[in-house]
Predict the 3D structure of the following.
Amino acid sequence: MKKKLIASLLATVLTVSTLAGCGGSSGNSTQTNAGSQTETAQDTAAQDTTAQDTATEDTGNTQEAAETAGGDVTIRLFSNLPDRKNGQGLVEQMIIDEYMEANPNVTIEVEALDEEAYKTKFKAYAMSGMPDVVSIWGQPSFLDEVLDAGVLAELNEADYADYKFIAGSLEGFKKDGKLYGLPRNTDIMLFYYNQKMFDDNGWTVPATYDELLELCKTIQGAGITPVAMDGGDGWPMACFLTDILVKVAGTDYAEIIRNAVAAGDFTAPEIREATQILVDSAAAGMFQTGYDSQDYGTTMNLFTNGQAAMYCMGSWDCSMALNEDITPEIRDNIRAFTMPVVEGGKGGAKDIAAWNGGGYAVSASSEVKDEAVKFLNYMYQPDKLSKYGWENGVGMSAQDQTEYLTGNETELQKQVMDILKEATSVSGTPINDCGPSVFKTTIENEIQGVSNGYTSVDDFLEAIGNACK
Amino acid sequence: MKKLYSNKLVIFSLVLPGVLVFLFAVLAPIILSVYYGFTDYSGMGEAKWIGWENYAALFHDSAFGRSLLNSLLLAIGFICIQHPLAILVAAVLDKLQGRAEGVFRCIYFIPNVISVAVIAYLWKFIYNPDFGLLNNVLKFFGYQGKINWLSQQNAIWSVLLVLIWHGFGWGMLIYYTGIKNIDPVLYEAASIDGANWWTTFFRITLPLMKPVIQINVTMAIISALKQMETVYLLTNGGPSNSTQFAANYLYQQAFKSFRYGYGNAIGVVFILICIVTTVVLNTVFREKQDA
């Protein structure tokens, strides 16, 4: 009898511990959902509540519903900016803190991951329920599938009439005329160069592509790498190709790419010419040895260490001019120019490759949608994201920033601002982000092979065309 | 106690966690994988049944072909370069005795202790054409050019070298343990009969190591097929898929290209290849054993 009692007792204990194990793991996953990297004071309290609740049901939702009923609101923000102490992440956090101070009943819980991890988890969330406010990219390669899945809430475009968005910057975030997100930055493709190195050697900024090639030859002769190119990642080279194509096709760029993606046919003469220019430039030694396998950091270091005379990248790297890890001799001498004109091309010097990439959206399934939209609108008030971004040297926002000039801008910042101000046309989305994500991965892989001469231009165009079908 | 274990409730509660883990963490995902392999699922929204389309596409996918070829190259590299070296080194270590044995055993095993991420970045720097160790050593010996170790043509060999180097310690350690288990009396008898080192190695060590070699070779081939982390961090399959491996390609397709269905189809083919390889290897080795 005694043994039987022990046996049933043991069995009960085992069963309970197994169930508790399941309950525990469910609790943990809810905690992660609720934001494992939260920065808020109330975070601990929220986690405690979750931890106490070992039931297997989705505690997050119950909790949220209860809070809404009680007047307290928790907004979950899923961000692609894990560094909360610098740059864009700091700006985001500043606004969050301000908002919570102004609205004591609102708690904003942040979960932040690096871009690639972010995109992967975004997908997982799309299946299991999105956080309320999320980072997105206003480009077909990201947004098409997301909008098809219907996970983002529609925004009322009329609400943003006074938000000073730059004309056309909302286009990438729309589908069938409906707005689903708001852009955060304006990105411009640039050649950064070392002014002092140029002056010392008597080099001048090229006005045409032929001059650029000539300059590269001279720089190479001096034993320096002409242009540092992050070819290992694929996308910077695709942006470079976009830049050339803008000079070849001018304002027809967007239409040519749109047609090519729609038909899965990239054999348009402009695209072929631009690709050929890229191939010839690489063959002429414009980039460093092994550019097609080197990553972002290594490439940037080549330039910031003075081993390369130029560096091809987007305007987000303007913060180099404020980076204390770079020696002042180089840091203070960084300047930029845009892609020089291609002979016979339709694009002028002021037709630039620029676009509005990252931004924010609200989840369609959010239980606190109204509050989430309210917070989104708060972030985008012109004196928030835009102003704080500028003050922290983050780069240009997608809103008019002229009011917020401090007078302490770096030469580079001013130069880039002028480039945008004087632009006669901007390209919109770079080529690799114009198609479905299969197209994006294909072109970013294949561009390495075509630029290093392994694949022919024809095969390259065919491969990227097939990826659109 | 005996009665306790014969109580069905106790048996049930002890077996249940294991069965649950197997059902939900192994079997269910595999079944789901097979299902999604037949759909055009993007990872979000609706999954549409498209039959064998993914598999047909896979058949024509040159990048997938390339990744299988690379796995094969790696397996050959493991079997023909890494393992013979590992056996030799293990045999030599066994003969070293004393402190040197421990020191060298440690040194050879160090690469396995270091995280894959560190290994990948370490080699990335070693291979860098501008400031990498390899080119600087060549420069020291008077070679003035810059060799691009990770170029389209060279990258796969450079990656294989890293993988072979990295896995060397494991192989060696298992062989070493195998050698240590050989009865020293046999060596004594051989030396009394006047056998030299090579004869003892080929006549005693190698034949008695057969079971260890079998396990090691099977594991090497499976690890060649499963290769992902080092490649992902070192080249991510580039330039232009020249160093692509199946697991990395699967990841790219499923999570970067939003082709979850296609990624699952790759996964299914991948599992089949792994199963077939294991069965074939087992059969080959069993036949040898029977003979």
Notes: Chain A touches chain B through 51 residues (CB under 8 Å). Residues 9-69 of chain A have pLDDT under 50 and may be disordered. The longest strand of chain A covers residues 187-194. The domain at 188-355+409-466 of chain A is CATH 3.40.190.10 (D-Maltodextrin-Binding Protein; domain 2).
